[in-house]
Amino acid sequence: MNRVLIIEDEGAIAELERDYLTLSGYEVVVESDGVAGKERALSEEFDMILLDLMLPGEDGFSILEAIRQNRQVPVMLISAKKDDIDKIRGLGLGADDYLTKPFSPSELVARVRAHIDRYKRLTSMVPEDIPANRAKPGEISIRQLLIKKPLHEVYVDGKKVSLSVKEYELLLKLASRPGEPLTKEELFESLWDKNNIGDIKTVAVHIKRLREKIEKDPSSPEYIETVWGQGYRIKV
Ligand code: CA
Hints:
11 strands, binds calcium ion
């Protein structure tokens, strides 16, 4: 059974989320305090985390940061203020989705289902067509960058890098067509649902985060190259 962690201090909202998700067949765990929620997120396996931003103990922004350093699980931020969405985007914290209160519970369930399905598909990907570079089946290797598709893992210089689902999808998309520039529009359309709140700027924010994680010097990238007027490509 898929497990969802809800970190939410407003009892009525936590209850609403829990009831709808339980009815939809998910196993749900609720934490109402930021510190306890973070500990739980980092010590147990979940398939999705719903994270409120304003929490006692520790706020959602810093909890998300901690989760992202260690885990690839999809995270949906739940915010009381529309203004927060701009802040979330600006920070490029690596959330997979956002919802503002009040939200429709069926919308919440639909999004949770879509994220979990996508996460499962990624983590169980089967080897398919591999570009050159002497990679083993199911792997893409570009110089010191190695993507193990069946395991959903990325290594740079032999060291494992922890990426969010979106960062991983973005890297995989680019690395599947090495040397070929992909436009922001193309990347946005293939990786983000149209219903998402995000816009095209999301692509640049994710590219930036990805570079910070895989490039020795993000300001002079070896792997993800900006092709002016065209988009991004993986240098081969
Ligand atoms: Ca709250």
